[in-house]
Design goal:
By secondary structure, the protein is of the alpha/beta class. It is built from 10 helices and 15 strands. The radius of gyration is 20 Å and the shape is globular.
Length: about 325
């Protein structure tokens, strides 16, 4: 079958359309004829040789797919041949065919295209896990979402608003519009404004209850200052680096803060299945009604995968970047 191949670890130029073996569905797995797949920062790191796939997972890039069920292993009862599905996979998404655990595959709502469905799994599950499963965000609380126009950011804004929270985001000025359209109450231009000072002014020095962060070290001190008493900082990535100098830990004690790091890909299959079930129960009807929507910045033909990766690396996207097979 055709698949996107990484010729050797490195830049986007290492990606090419090639061939690999078609996967065979095992017990409880579906074989999906892929129609679309979405990009993630993890794909870039894996392409560079910095983020190996979990043990037993396909070495082919790709974590979220949509397509049509074309085969099934023993024990699958949730779906049948011909069903249109989308879901999160541990790898193998950049290919004509991909296997997915039957309990991780979800029926595509009738109002969504393959491209829209492919833009849901990773970012919405990550946002749901961060805000609801981990941070326990409640109605009336305040949340600061860094990288508000990113894939996870756009999903997190919508979920937080559905909960009834007040939402602040950081994003470059040109990306504020999409954040407001999704429900953000305030947007901070991280290029020209200090988010701690802005949050302090907006909250009368009380701070926010939850922060969702991808930057890590450069934002850590101001994140701590921006949190309210009993605040929760959820760190999902360290795009800005992971080492902090000259920090007074007593700030964490006096505010009774919780600092939690989280990933999703490395979680057990059982954990991911339970999370997916909870998320679908929360979100499925909201996708059907349009209360929640996947946000797509640009769709590329998968033959243009190198250009798509460069586009993401240049931080040009507001929302998801999707590849379609064609």
């Amino acid at each position: 079958m055709k698949a996107i191949i990484v010729q050797s670890p490195g830049g986007a130029e290492q990606l090419k359309l090639g061939k690999t073996e078609e996967p065979i569905p095992k017990k409880n797995e579906l074989l999906v004829k892929v129609e679309a797949m979405a990009l993630n920062r993890a794909d870039i790191l894996q392409r560079q040789g910095k983020y190996p796939p979990p043990k037993g997972a396909s070495k082919t890039l790709g974590l979220e797919i949509s397509g049509t069920v074309s085969g099934a292993g023993h024990g699958v009862t949730k779906h049948k041949i011909g069903d249109k599905v989308f879901g999160l996979v541990p790898g193998g998404g950049y290919a004509e065919f991909c296997v997915i655990n039957g309990s991780m595959a979800n029926k595509i709502p009738g109002n969504l295209s393959f491209e829209q469905a492919a833009a849901i799994p990773e970012v919405f599950l990550t946002a749901y896990q961060s805000l609801i499963s981990i941070a326990k965000l409640k109605k009336g609380e305040r949340v600061l979402i860094h990288a508000g126009a990113s894939g996870v950011g756009t999903a997190a804004i919508q979920i937080a608003k559905e909960i009834g929270a007040e939402v602040f985001v950081t994003a470059s000025k040109e990306k504020h519009k999409i954040c407001f359209e999704l429900g953000a109450d305030e947007a901070i231009d991280y290029k020209s404004e200090n988010f701690y000072e802005k949050v302090s002014n907006l909250t009368n020095n009380n701070g926010v209850d939850v922060i969702i962060d991808f930057i890590s070290a450069p934002y850590f001190k101001d994140n701590i200052k921006s949190l309210a008493v009993d605040g929760r900082l959820i760190i999902l990535a360290s795009l800005g680096g992971g080492k902090i100098d000259d920090f007074d830990l007593r700030q964490i004690l006096t505010k009774r803060l919780s600092i939690i790091g989280s990933t999703l890909r490395a979680r057990s299959l059982e954990y991911q299945i339970n999370l997916n079930k909870e998320f679908i129960n929360f979100a499925y009807e909201k996708f059907e009604s349009g209360k929640l929507r996947p946000v797509i910045d640009k769709i590329f033909n998968w033959k243009e995968v190198a250009i798509a990766h460069q586009y993401m690396e240049a931080n040009k996207n507001a929302g998801k970047i999707v590849l379609k097979i064609g």
